[in-house]
Each structure stands twice: as C-alpha cells, then as structure tokens.
Amino acid sequence: MSARRLLLLPAVTVLLALTACGTEESGSGSTASAPANGTPSPTSTVTTMTAGDVKSADCPSGATLQKLVELPKDMTFGKVECVKDWAGADPQGPKAGDGVYLFHYTAGTGWKYYGEGSGYDCKDLGLTVPAPFCISDPATTTTKPATAKPATTKPVTTSPTCPSAKTLGSLVELPKGVTFGKVECVKDWAGADPQGSNVGDGVYLFHYTAGTGWKYYGEGSGYDCKDLGLTVPAPFCISD
C-alpha cells in the first residue's frame, strides 16, 4: 500500500500546478474598472478675455512690452491697459507726453508695436467697445500734432549692416495699407520711410544695440541728432 501512494503523489502535484497556471492567465487579461462613484476626471478650464477686461492674464506687463521697443533715456512703461487684442502702455519719464504706446497681438507672432500717440479711433482698430487708448466717437477724433520738418541733409554713410524694409517691417505692425519704402542708415540708427495712404512726413526710427539687434525707437520728424548721439548729419534728424 505504501508503494501505491508514492506513485499517486506526482500526479496530484501536476494537477495543482496546472490549476494555478490557469488562474494567472485569466487574471492577466482583466482591466481596471471605472471609479465606483462614476465621477469623471476633472478637466482644465481656460479663461477667455472679454471686451474691456484690462485684468486678463493675457494682458502683457510693462516689462514685457518694453522688450519690444527702445524707449528714450529715463523712460519706462507704467500702467498697461488691454482691450481684446490691443494693449496701451503709458510712458513714464521727464519727457513723456500724453499719448500711449500701442501694441497689437496676433496669433503666431505675439505682441508687436503698432503706434504711438493719443488720437487713435477705436473703429480704425476694429474695436466696437470703449477703450482707454482710443476715441469711440469719430466726431471727437483729434490728430497728432505735426512736428517740425527736419532740414534736408545728405546722408553721410550707409551702414553695411543696414536692415532691409522687410526686416524692419517684421518688428512693428504697420497700419493697413502702409509699408516701408526707403531705409537710410547712419551708424547704428535706421530711418524707414512709410509708404501708403494717410502717412505723414515722418519716419519710423530704429536703433541697433549689440546683443539685442534692431529695435523700434520712435516715429516722427523732429529728432535732434545730438539726442541720438550723432555728431554727423543724418536724413532722419536735425543737426545744428
């Protein structure tokens, strides 16, 4: 009897091993069940900017906008107010006027300088709601005071690194129908002549600084060459 029992033991062992193996295979194909309470996972929310919402998170800071332009010495941006995709930055400093620096946001290119002044018409900007940097009533629209026309001077020299009109056009957002024509450079300054309807006799002035490249400086026609650090005549500033 003892010999027969010894022969049955291996068969029992094999049967138990096969049973355990089948249990593991059936368990490996199972999937995790949904939460018992059936509550869906939370989704992120997006805050949209409404008309006149100057507190939107998308509104750039003064420091951010100051990276896009080169302000005159001792000038900084103070309060920035935004409506839709427009931002008006208030310049602060001893020579600051009552106008603002206006910037426009376009998807894919971000914020770009648009203009400087205080007589913007909201309709021209595509705004149908009031904004602190433009005039809603066309009847009260004022024009920017004209500046003194500089004396005609002959350019001394053109920098070999003088940027093209296309390059300078990528730094600012020109009004509809306006493009840059002739670009004249003296040392590290470049004056771009705007072409199109409703353009004045001024130029867009850009300054080159090592490490940052060309940046918008100002728009007008009454620049003093000495204020720009130029001791030679230039077509975009007035020399004594």
UniProtKB/TrEMBL annotation:
<feature type="signal peptide">
    <location>
        <begin position="1"/>
        <end position="22"/>
    </location>
</feature>
<protein>
    <recommendedName>
        <fullName>Lipoprotein</fullName>
    </recommendedName>
</protein>
<keyword id="KW-0732">Signal</keyword>
<feature type="region of interest" description="Disordered">
    <location>
        <begin position="24"/>
        <end position="48"/>
    </location>
</feature>
